[in-house]
Amino acid sequence: MKLKLILFSSLLIVLLSCQEKEVATTTNYSEIADQMEKSLKENLLDTWYPKAIDLDSGGYLSNFTYDFQIKDDAQEKMIVTQARHLWSNSKAAKRYPQEAHYMEGAKHGFEFLRDKMWDHEHGGFYQLVSRSGQPLLEKSPLKTAYGNSFGIYALAAYFGATGDSAGLDLVIKAFHWLEEKSHDPVHKGYFQHLSQDGTPIVRPEDTPSTSDLGYKDQNSSIHLLEALTELYEVWKDPLLKERLEEMLLLVRDTIVNEKGSLVLFLQPDWTPVSFQDKSEEEIMKHKSLDHVSFGHDVETAYLILESSHVLGWKNDDVTLAKAKKMVDHALEFGWDNEKAGFFDEGYYFLGEERPRIIKDSKNWWAQSEGMNTLLMMAELFPDDPWDYFGKFEALWKYNQEYLIDHEHGDWFAGGLDKQPQLKTADKGHIWKANYHQFRAMKGCIDRLRSW
User: Would the keyword Isomerase turn up in this protein's UniProt record (predicted)?
Assistant: First the structure.
């Protein structure tokens, strides 16, 4: 399977062969896998599809109420959400080939990306369009590397599922557009903010200090890494391989700091944006630019190992060690020892050795990504003192109790133990779909069944 990782050192190979996958001898792996498959198919995918297919205007509907009714609003469409739905339909079409509506949904979504979200004059994907596909440049005047990364991610999955050469043609065009417009030939990586013609935005001097305009960042970087990894699986291009290797090394060795956490925002030369020497009031004012994001750290641990695997980097002890450091840091400082789950935000205040939790909510995507990474670490380090499998089981239990909506389907936006009001919050919007949950549960199910 895709995420059946290469075991990165001979020591681990010997260890795991001796263990015979006995991560926890009393656990029925197939039982957990069956629970998750049922949740994935019946609670998540069946809730979203085909209901989210916009038969009137193309693409996918984004906005749904807490009980999963289609909202009677503008239903604007963002490239990130449209791409994630295309990715989900493409992966579901491969996983459940007997259900034709996934393949139909994937082709439907591809046509919207190709015909409406792609800028046929300047190239690149628009960030936001109306329901019918008209660019909303007053609301969203810039293109982003982040948005385009998800376009690439989805199109690669679509081609992998369908073999449609039109999908490959468009994803290659998108990759080369990013290469020409967004790639930084001097400091490497990609500029995040771009004008409509693709010119990188240089941070103006009068930019508010709380704005991320003109910065590079971890979020676009890790998802570019993710997208290039998905593309390299279906298109073995030498320049693509070079950029994938470049992004893996940048994320692993530059964006991840010495503590094992991601720097959120950086100058174009990769100097970290930090407010640590400011007052606590100033730090909290700017915390969107500078904090510890435990969810992103755990997600990135998985992504760098996946990229190393797809690149064929055998015995890659450096990436393995960095991934473990990131997960261990998140468990030590960001894990809820009472109910389980990863807190949203921490901060290393000057002179303090431990980060303080500055936001103790537990958002849905971090908990889903956490399961996938913890189970991967349990396979790689079955006897580790952190007991990754035990943490995985605790997180799966937490998600079932506080995040999965067993009445109306899908997941709440955050754990109800911390945010009970989210029980009646919208289930879908342009920043919330199902890709995190789908990818995480799919990865967990496949790994459990391989044991």
Answer: yes
